[in-house]
Structures are given as C-alpha cells and as structure tokens.
Peptide methionine sulfoxide reductase MsrA (Hyphomicrobium denitrificans), 247 residues
Amino acid sequence: MDASSSKPTRSRLSWLNGIFLSGALILAAAFIFGASRSVSEEGRPLPAPTVDEPVTAAVETAVFAGGCFWGVQGVFQHVAGVKEAVSGYAGGKAEDAKYQVVGTGRTGHAESVRVTFDPKTVSYGRLLQIYFSVAHDPTELNRQGPDRGTQYRSTIFPTSDEQAKVAKAYISQLDAAKVFSKPIATTIEPGRSFYAAEAYHQNFLTLNPSYPYIVINDMPKIENLKRLYPEAYRAEPALVAVAKPTH
C-alpha cells in the first residue's frame, strides 16, 4: 500500500470505522496494514540522557515527528507533565500545511506533534527518552509501520538551541551505547514552524480506540509507555480542546 492511501481521508474515516468493528475484520486489517514488529511496537527501556536542559521556564514546547501523528500524539498525551499535545505539520510552508497536500510527500512537511510541557515535572530529555523508546522506531527514517514517505520521517524540530544540543547529545549517547541494532536515523531540523492539523485529527487515538489502524499500530505504544515508564504514565490523557464547527 502506498503512503498516500495507507491512512484514510476525512470522508473515509466514519465509513471505515463502521466497517472494521468485528474482531475478524481487525485481524484482516492487520494483514493489510501491518508489518513486522517495529521497535515502537515492542518497546524497550533506554538510558536517561546524560545531557538535559536546565529548568528555566514554567512552560515549554517541543516538536517531534515519527510516523503517523495519531500515535505520537496519543503517547505524549499520556505523559505526566504534558499540558497539551497537538497533531500538526512541520518542515514546510504554511500554505502546504493541509493533510491532503502533505500526503503527497512533496511539501517538506512531516506529520508532527507539538508538546507543551511543564519542565519541572517532565524534562525535555525525558520526552526524548519516551520519543525514542516508545513513540516510534528511530532507526527508520522515512517509514513507520505501514506508512512510507518523507511526511512520516523521524525528525526532531527543536524550538531552541538548547533543545537541539540535548537532542544531538542523546542521539550520540544512544548510538555509542548500541541500544538499537541499527544507527539512529532521526534528523534534527531547527528553525521550522509548526502548523496545527485539522480538527478531525486531534485526539484521534482517544476518540477512536477500536479503529483498526490505532489498534494495530498505536495502542501497543500506550501499553509500552505504561509498562516501561510507569512513573511517567498518566491514565487520563491531556486532550486538545477542539472548537466545534459552526453551521
């Protein structure tokens, strides 16, 4: 399945949700959507960063990309200290920050998540630890599970020079420790703007826990977060407040 069709458009979301409800069809969807178990599906504990940010702000933002933003958003929404995690696009221009356009893989955008967090509760280094161990497979550059293309790339968009320094140091630390069987492919792209995605993409994992793509690709990530980092896990997700459309 090519990247442009591996996830449904808005008009297909409710239609497919109605079709894939039975357990048998979910297993069929596993054959269609699935791949061999990835690092993010299996999960693995990672050492804490030896370099981290000093706590100098009451609230801070970080932006991460690692495949479909549904799962990445869902993971960070369950991290204690995260105030908000918004699905969106980063790496390209404002006029191209639209789901259908980003899906072409030609905009420079990656599906991303902007995390607003309290650094006194959870540090940027801790978020990186969760990002690399639970949220996605950092050894794959332009592929995560069934999704392929630059719009699904593994990328950190630092919002400060200090974040870029910490991220670079942690990648070097993990590569030196050989915690993965392959080198980390994650890139660091500073100075890129973030644009929030359409409302129907926000809180998707929480609102659609039985949706086959979520069941197969993303719910294991939440379980891994709870299992590997129980002290960082919170059961009640920090949901995005989405305005209802007016008619």
The CA atoms of residues 124 and 176 lie 20 Å apart. Confidence is low (pLDDT under 50) at residues 1-6, 9-37. Residues 3-228 form a domain with the Peptide Methionine Sulfoxide Reductase; Chain A fold (CATH 3.30.1060.10).
